[in-house]
Amino acid sequence: MDSEDPSANSGALVLKTEEPEHQTEDVGARNRLTVATGRVMNAFQIVKGRMDPEAVEETRQYLADLKWVKDCVNPSSHPCYKKIKRRGTAGSPENYYYPHLLVLQAIWPENRTVRLVATAFGKYWDNADMKNGPAFYPILNDKDRELSLFRGEVLDIGIQSGEYDPDRDPDYRPRNKGPAPAYFDDESEDDEEVDIDQEEEEDGDAGDGDEGEATDNDPMDSEGKINDKDENAFDRVAEDLRARLQSVEEKKRKMQEWKSDYWKTKSQNYEKSSEEHKKKSEDDKAKAERYAKIASEYAKRRDKTSAVSNSIPSASVDEESGDGPPAKRARNDESVATEETA
Q: Which portions of the chain have biased composition (kind: Basic and acidic residues) (predicted)?
């Protein structure tokens, strides 16, 4: 089978799958392989413009090696998925070699399991957009860092930004210390890398046509097991979210209770102050009325005293009328007689 990118130029990668293990008499399988290979080549054309040249060449050699070419109905049966997952989970795999993800995203762009894997790669690269496909391969402008991430050599998720907290991710499992293997290992190692929870027996020999097809098409042996594990993982995440939500709601309730008590206390203080001012105002009003009565009483006394004072005759009035004390009249008479004698 030959597969070539229709949009490729003269320097584009051309795949020729002439080895016997990649040949099959099944027309449907050949068609699926042709479509899958074309998708991978198109994805490579998209992503290589965003990659460092060394990563581009390494991806080119990886694709030319053809060990990723296999007719699989589900991604969980594909060698690339097994190489990524190893003994981890779709949401927390053990191998972060990027070309494996490129193949899976190209062939199954909308598959839920592939999106879980891509989300894990997004955490690893500290770029959530990677789950959207090869067109979102991060442009880092840092060759050494890009190649380390590209080859899966960074040991801890979130090491770049420190934002990813594995203690809060129930699916997180620390990967084996040391760089992840770049290319597919020898086929003899496949038995060690098969998911220990997955009952399908597929050692990667594409030449075993009948057994390979039976395994790929059996949902209970492939996607079914993965879905069960993913569902359990989602249950754990949901339980964790419920616990956090309950904790947040409890903190929110306590804050609201504190605010209610705070404003209630302020209201009571102002009400008490208002009552005190009201009582003081009433007392002041009573005092004002009492003092006004006292002032009125003294005003009446003053008027009465003035009336009595006005009723007493003055000295000038006594002289004109001849009235007055007898002694004073005698003195006056003597004075007049003396004047007349003189």
A: 16-27, 165-174, 222-264, 272-292
The Cα–Cα gap between 187 and 227 comes to: 26
Q: Do residues 120 and 92 make contact, with C-beta atoms less than 8 angstroms apart? A: yes
Q: What is the DSSP string of 49-113?
A: GGS-HHHHHHHHHHHHT-TT----SSGGGSHHHHHHHTTSBTTB-S---HHHHHHHHHH-TT-HH
Torsion of Cα atoms, 239 then 242 then 246 then 247, to 10°: 70
179, two tokens:
């760089």
Within 8 A by CB and 6+ apart from 55, the residues are: 98, 146, 147, 150
pLDDT tens readout for residues 312-326: 666 555 555 555 556
pLDDT in tens, 12-24: 555 554 443 444 4
Interval 110-127: pLDDT, tens? 899 999 999 999 999 998
Is pTM beyond 0.85 here? no
Using DSSP's 3-state secondary structure scheme, residue 195 falls into coil
> Based on the number of CB atoms within 10 Å of its own CB, is 312 exposed (0-12), middle (13-18) or buried (19 or more)?
exposed
Phi, psi dihedrals of residue 14, rounded to the nearest 5°? -120, 125
Which of 174, 37, 172 lies closest to 102 in space, CA to CA? 37
- List the domain boundaries for the chain: 2-185+204-218
Say how far apart CA 214 and CA 216 lie, in whole Å: 6
